[in-house]
Amino acid sequence: MIKSLGRKQSDGYDDGGGGGDGALSLDNNEEEDSIKIIRGIRLYDYDSYKPNFDGNFRCLDGSKEVSFKRVNDDFCDCLSDGSDEPSTNACAKGRFYCKYQKRHITGRGVDVYVPSSRINDGICDCCDGSDEWLTITCKNKCT
Question: What is the dihedral of CA 61, 65, 67, 73, to 10 degrees?
């Protein structure tokens, strides 16, 4: 079985011998297989916000491993870096990375973030307003 871009695909080869009923079992659950990017993370950390083989999430500083179901559950499990709550304000040390990141053509630049305590507080901290999705609609002021 080949996994590509978040969808399960069959390689089309089945000789009927060997394992059990001789057929590949494909579950095409669209919701489960779709690619999801968690709000407030850096694109650089995208792969870190996927469940590992045990179905867990490892804090970005490596200090702790928790069930992936506990990511964004509004309870801070990664106390040292707040990385399990990128879209909530549950962690004192949490960071919310704004959607708009100004970069040089070489990819260099400084990550633009706000403390997670400022998420959905009614004040537009990110120039694109990405930190306010529940409370108000912000005008895009990015250049």
Answer: -40
